[in-house]
Design a protein that fits this description.
Length: about 450
């Protein structure tokens, strides 16, 4: 009897613990440690009891726990449904409860692609200049992510324009420029800021290059850059060539080779001067006649006036500031530029204007490539080709000597018969019996 009373006392102890938990705010079950500790204490109290009393007590304990769990689940469901706030949308920066449960927070409002300003394929849309102007005022990643659809629209439009310009250059300007895919022509809009003090992530222009290697490779070529505020331009030539190529160009100038003479003549052509300005020698003479005020305000003209031009003579043996070609030897870039206003860029004949500028600058590009990247010599002829050429020469001599084209009796000389082509025979041999071809005519 004492053991049964102890078992019932332990059961009542657990029930009182559960009831106290239900009265408070705690709605969770016992932890594993508490359950094991409670179970150990219960089993220690039940050790003197017999097996039948222990089974009855455990069954009562199980029924009590089951009823307690059901009541707690009902209580938890009722409390969660009562505390759930209504769903709402909070705009970023409105209140301090933006991240509350059930609240949808608007991080950024995305901008869709342009709905107007569409043009024909191969023409530039005014949306391109507008996007670049807005990017110049908001050059950060958050703004760019919001206007991603506008950027993709402008990128596609400029890519189609670059493809059309490539076809124009290939057909009307320079046949050495090959066809290349758009990704090899157009430069990426993302800046490389690893070694730059300017950490703005994006360029504020769109540019494409047309050369033997596209936008890559050590070749002179043609370049088109689109930038708002009248800073779009067409450029041609070679910008800052590598050390070896620059040394090669300077060597041609020092030795006054045919390529150097052709280069000096090309930049002095009237059409070239009309598009890109006069050479520095002619510009100096005009500036002296107009006064020193104009000479103290240098501007980019022809090949000269760039930021990378040397101020002193280059470190070349035998070259000083009095050298007759010192202006040419100071150059580090052999590139010319012609600027276009925004209105000119958006005109329908803008591509035709680029073709005219390309034709004027084609001699410069061709001469620079001949200096630094000359065409390879033709491959040597094989022995078989040389033998074939020798036999053709001998055959020609024999034909001229024998007078092919007139009737001759070649006799029984087999060698002569081999040298005479079959189509040169314009007669029919007689039959073996000496008869004519009357029978053949009759058969026909």
């Amino acid at each position: 009897m004492s053991s049964r009373r102890s078992a019932r006392a332990s059961t009542g102890k657990r029930l009182s613990y559960r009831e106290d938990s239900d009265d408070g705010d705690a709605v969770e079950d016992l932890t594993e440690d508490e359950y094991q500790q409670d179970r150990a204490s219960t089993s220690a109290d039940d050790e003197p009891a017999d097996q039948t009393d222990s089974s009855e007590a455990s069954q009562d304990n199980f029924d009590t726990k089951r009823s307690a769990n059901g009541s707690k689940r009902r209580k938890l469901h009722s409390s969660s449904s009562a505390s759930k706030p209504p769903s709402k949308i909070a705009v970023s920066g409105s209140t301090g409860d933006d991240w509350a449960p059930g609240v949808t927070r608007v991080v950024a409002k995305l901008v869709g692609p342009p709905q107007s300003g569409h043009v024909a394929r191969g023409e530039l849309s005014p949306n391109v200049l507008k996007f670049l102007a807005d990017l110049q005022a908001n050059n950060d990643r958050d703004w760019f992510a919001r206007y991603d659809a506008v950027y993709r629209y402008c990128w596609k439009n400029f890519g189609e324009f670059a493809d059309a310009v490539l076809n124009d250059i290939m057909e009307k300007v320079d046949d050495t420029v090959p066809w290349l895919p758009t990704k090899d022509l157009v430069y990426r809009i993302y800046r490389d800021v690893r070694f730059s003090n300017d950490k703005t992530p994006y360029k504020t222009n769109l540019m494409a290059s047309f050369s033997r290697g596209g936008r890559k490779g050590p070749f002179a070529g043609y370049h088109v850059l689109v930038k708002p505020d009248g800073r779009s331009f067409f450029a041609a030539g070679r910008w800052q060539p590598e050390r070896e190529d620059l040394a090669t160009i300077r060597r041609h100038i020092l030795e006054d080779t045919q390529e150097a003479q052709a280069l000096k003549a090309a930049v002095s052509e009237p059409t070239f001067v009309k598009w890109f300005g006069e050479p520095k020698g002619q510009l100096k003479a005009k500036s002296k006649s107009k006064g020193k005020a104009q000479a103290t305000n240098p501007q980019r003209c022809n090949l000269w006036g760039g930021d990378d031009e040397l101020k002193v003579a280059p470190k070349i043996e035998g070259v000083d500031k009095t050298h007759k070609d010192i202006d040419w030897l100071k150059l580090r870039s052999f590139c010319v530029i012609h600027n276009f206003a925004d209105a000119e860029v958006l005109r329908k004949d803008f591509r035709q204007r680029l073709v005219e500028a390309g034709k004027a600058s084609e001699p410069l590009v061709r001469i620079l490539n001949s200096m630094t990247s000359p065409d390879p010599p033709p491959p040597p002829e094989s022995d078989e080709e040389q033998d074939d050429e020798g036999s053709d020469v001998e055959s020609g001599r024999s034909r001229s000597h024998t007078g092919v084209g007139t009737r001759h009796d070649y006799g029984n000389d087999d060698d002569d018969e081999e040298l005479v082509p079959t189509e040169s025979f314009d007669y029919v041999e007689d039959d073996e019996d000496g008869d004519d071809d009357d029978e053949d005519d009759d058969d026909d």
